[in-house]
Predict the structure.
Amino acid sequence: MIVVFGTICLDRIRRVPHLPEPGACVETDEEVVSLGGEAANTAACLMRLGARVRLFGNPTGEDEDGSLLRDALLRAGLPTPGTAGGYETPVCDIMVAPDGERAMVGHGFSTIEGSHVRLPELDGGDWFTADPNLQASARRAAASAQERGLRTYLMDFIRDEDRALLDGCDVWQSSTDWAGKRGDWELNLDLCRAHARRHDCLTILTDGPAGLVVCEPGTEPRRLPAFRCEQVVDTTGAGDAFRGGMLFGLDRGLPLSDSLRLAACVGCLSCRKMGAVSALPTLQEALEFIAAHPEVAAAYV
């Protein structure tokens, strides 16, 4: 059982011909309302692959957006969180350019933290994963999971106050949006090497279509290539899908190389449509895609 804790929100995604310059206006070509939030995206990916998963995080509000979010969770096969009166459902407005790059503006997120958040039930869990967006609640949940002996997978925990949690985690993942630097492989390799040594955990830093760096404690970091989609439509949630693929593989006891390969494949395929969860592949679809790209798959051995 994989316990996923973190942000659950509604995404409003608008396709635009290009991201606007300051002071400029662009007209949208298409708009999609979708399930969003790092935790919800990862849980939806795990469900699609066939994992046993529990999702916990912030509630929905008793507003129209909350109703849309609950419907989106049901369509993904995920449990709906409780509702909270007088609480604004968090919504992320996302503009997506033709190359898949995006810009985001959120509202309702600043009111999530505190009494609204339900901490996770950990009984029967094998893996626990969290993002830091629920702040103190996320840190309390991760610490509780570690105390209970669950293997922990932390994503985007990068603050100095996270040091104790990182010392006790099994896997750390982030992207060059938060750590390292896009395209600077020397810097990213050094960062992963230092992080793995400092915290004695598997360290993963993704860099979108450029690939990723991974480092196991006691080894040298490796740079691995990304799989390529025929057409990248929307990169929203690709890192969350990568995390889902990794957790699925690790929970199934797959070798690290196979888990990384699956994660990279799932992250790639999630970019085929608008919305973070609209193009998530089944396990069979992912395996067929890997088999169709042996030149990339071989790099993960």
The mean pLDDT is 92. DSSP finds nine helices and 14 strands in the chain. The first strand starts at residue 2 and ends at 6.
